[in-house]
């Protein structure tokens, strides 16, 4: 039995900012904010991951400011802002698509390319071989090599060409337009104007990040120019900006998925970054000062900034302080409930969602969209506690209301359908779940796009429904597709991506490649520990799968030890009768039986059978699994 991670396949919905109602304030005990006898002192014990996140936000702010200030200083005329990026109709291609012919022609054109750029650089008053300086220091291209005003790069190697074509261009070598490449670095705007005007005469494509810089603030221009029929690449930099490129790129890699999405969403996050983050402050002191102040707007802005990063610990600190400052704001309590969900604190999350739901039913009526959002989120918390039958019933109710009030293809209606599918899967209704998940996936692809996170949750659910029905080849294909899309859109360490990685490991498991399955399971487990914490339910599900792959390799004693550690952690986190806890109890009992300790295995399997019958019903696949294991163990015991 694999312990599938369920929580991140479901969608927690946000409340609109206007949702605020008068209600009784709640008392919360699980907080890392310690207040002294006066309200003017707040001490916070930050986790290492939160410190890293805050320091990276500071670093991004610092390097972004350096970039923008450098651009303002040396490019006051903003000459390049008049040029929009452009490219030819269709795809830019070389005149040949054979790698040997292409490399030969590129080598032949290199002298002309070099002479052309030398003339352009010298006409701008630059010395081609002069080392680029900024603020009295050499500007480095690599750790050992400085930039020069003109740097002609070596031809892209055959190996790198083949790799890029295989990964990005589907085997089409004609799309390699950067085999011949160079960079030009200018010191001021007059030099930039001279170089840009000359390059534009040869240009067939322009990517102008002086006009449209990415979220890091880094700006340059990328020209593709044609020399003797071959497309070449020239990067145009300003020394004041490229001097910060290495530092800037580090934060680009860290925040790339965070700033993904539409332009307006990215701009909003940049505004919040500039408003909330002081790059010169000590992160511990700055956060404590923010929490100590009575400025709820700044704390809310900080929460909006970090919630997409998945730092639930920091989000909880901010939400709890907002609830203190705004005791009558139901929206703040809803945000806190969602954050508790994200940390696996499902009992408290359900309590807060239920409080919101009851208040909204009274104020707005049970079919109002805001009321249904609270119902949806409360049911999610119920499901995460293992109350699947009740969750399915309430999801069905919410889905019917939403179809009636919002329409079948409204995104909120689809969220509820997606989560209802997950509840059906967990209860063993795989065929029905597959039909509904395919329906949901097709509509989401049409309305949101194939790689939207919600669409991918629906694809993940469909893959699981197919998987559990034994259609392993199709399930493997769907899990792989979902994993690749999530890596590309969310990043490799996003919880949803890790869930897909975990699902992909099952393909190796079913192919009886247990060593590979163990390696992938451990990789997933380690990443989840880092991202979610050791006690998060999804992390524990990954831990279970490590133990399971170990057991399948015949290492029963080691597997028993791992299962026992996992079981103890799950009992503490989820409760003894949670279905996921019972999965681990069942598998631990099986490996105990495999070691010949049949008497002990019988006792544990009897306990598991009774708990599963009570929680899931006698006909549930998990219950039948325990009954079969018990029957086998009893036979072994009687021999």
Walkthrough of the structure:
It is a single chain. With 639 residues, this protein is an alpha+beta fold. It contains 25 helices and nine strands. It has helices at 48-74, 99-123, 158-168, 189-202, 239-242, 245-255, 263-276, 283-292, 296-306, 312-325, 330-342, 346-364, 369-384, 388-405, 411-426, 430-448, 453-468, 472-490, 495-510, 514-532, 537-552, 556-574, 579-594, 598-616, 621-638, and strands at residues 33-35, 42-44, 133-134, 137-138, 150-152, 181-186, 203-208, 221-227, 230-238. A five-stranded mixed beta sheet has the order 5-6-9-8-7. A two-stranded antiparallel ribbon has the order 1-2. Helix 11 (330-342) runs antiparallel to helix 12 and helix 21 packs antiparallel against helix 22 (556-574). It is globular.
Please state how the strands of the largest beta sheet are arranged side by side. Answer: 5-6-9-8-7
What is the average per-residue confidence, as pLDDT, rounded to a whole number? 86
The stretches of 5 or more residues where confidence is low (pLDDT under 50) are 1-40
Assembly type: single chain
Overall helicity: 55-70%
Short description:
Helix content is 63%, strand content 6%. It has 639 residues and is an alpha+beta fold.
Features:
6% strand; two-stranded antiparallel sheet; 639 residues; alpha+beta; 9 strands; 25 helices; five-stranded mixed beta sheet
What is the secondary structure topology, with strand pairs?
Elements: E1 33-35, E2 42-44, H1 48-74, H2 99-123, E3 133-134, E4 137-138, E5 150-152, H3 158-168, E6 181-186, H4 189-202, E7 203-208, E8 221-227, E9 230-238, H5 239-242, H6 245-255, H7 263-276, H8 283-292, H9 296-306, H10 312-325, H11 330-342, H12 346-364, H13 369-384, H14 388-405, H15 411-426, H16 430-448, H17 453-468, H18 472-490, H19 495-510, H20 514-532, H21 537-552, H22 556-574, H23 579-594, H24 598-616, H25 621-638
